[in-house]
Amino acid sequence: MNRQELTLLTDLYELTMMQGYYAKGQHEKVIFDVFFRQNPCNNGYSVCAGLQQVIDYIKNLNFTYEDVDYLRGLGIFSEDFLQYLSGFHFSGDIYAIPEGTVVFPKEPLLKVVAPIMEAQLVETAILNIINHQSLIATKASRVVFAANGDGIMEFGLRRAQGPDAGLYGARAAIIGGCVGTSNVLAGELFDVPVMGTHAHSWIMSFSDEYTAFKTYAEMYPDNCTLLVDTYDTLKSGVPNAIRVFREFRDAKKPLKKYGIRLDSGDLAYLSKEARRMLDEAGFPDASICASNDLDEYLLHDLKVQGAAIDSWGVGTNLITSKDNPSFGGVYKLAAIQNEAGEFVPKIKISENTEKITNPGNKTIFRIYDKTTGKVKADLICFADETFDTSEDLLLFDPIETWKKTKLAGGSYIMREILVPIFKNGECIYKSPSVKEIADYCRQEKKTLWEETKRLFYPHRVYVDLSPKLYEVKRKLLEKMSIEKEY
User: Fold this and answer.
1) Sign of torsion, CA 357 363 366 367?
2) Structural domain total, the chain
3) Residue 259, phi then psi, degrees to nearest 5
């Protein structure tokens, strides 16, 4: 899907609400926040991704003649509103957390400050982009963690839910920590490493396995990984691979980067046996790659069992985030500008405490321990609030308010993580390359405590509210509370 086609990538109710605002003459500025309520996959953190695609979408957001004609044909939009859409362009401000940053529930990943019609229109596409890429980046980060230093290759294109999911899922996977992708288009568009070996069909197309291996090695002597499980892994595949490796070595043409790939069977047992056979044959530097419906849990177990595998191709379970297929990001109104130009905080209430929103024009400060550089907490506050790190800072849980932590002045540092992206409709942010974002993400994860990164029952990083924001929220809740009869 090209960028222009994204204009109508929206839910119908965004347009019907826009027409309602237009008809009633509502042009005031509003603030919407994009945030999520729970980390996917029971993780201790998430990785935000997708900002570059949001930027492309906003830059190219306009209604073509064909778009307007289609909307006219629906028979629900007035001609004056359609005329307004014909000249539409985004004129607001957008703030966002840079891609690759580790993030936590409830904090705004992205903030839209714009006239209400513009802010309403962009909701669906922004959520679609941010939700998908943040989900896959987070899943990839879990898989990479489970591999404990081994390289993870993203192999999911053929199992992704469509071309865009495969393409941008590969991008997100690289951000999350994968070393490469099998997706050639992703390699071209995002300048990331492309990787792959060969399929079983290559072996089966030859008269015998040995000939298939030798032919492949002759064609790719600098990167030769042979798939050894087409017939019998230990009795045929590995011995034939060793035969080819030995012939090239004896001919004084040793293969430079070489090894085998396992794609079925008991990967722990087979890899250890294959490693023994390769070592005894004099090829201790031959790599062993594994694929076969891997995810972070299976990787974890295989590592515990001592599997002799040094690189992994992960496909379906990564590119679809199979066990948690939705990120759950939402887009909620936080403030409306009054006639005096001030933003009046707005709040959504719910019987479900987790669904009550944080009101007002906000920003986020990340708080680090000054000695270790590790994240202590995130603090959501009003955008105009300032803090003096030489003074004590009292943090408290906004739900269980009796849970408090006092940070001594001088023991912590603070960094604002929500940065300006668009100003008055113009992009003022230069996106890093995907490789740069991936490098940044690796550094970000180093700021997390090990307890937060573990796969099972990770330690929670607290996201707190400033006293000023908490008090405004409390007063709004009291004002809007309704006594119920039981």
Assistant:
1) negative
2) 2
3) 170, -160
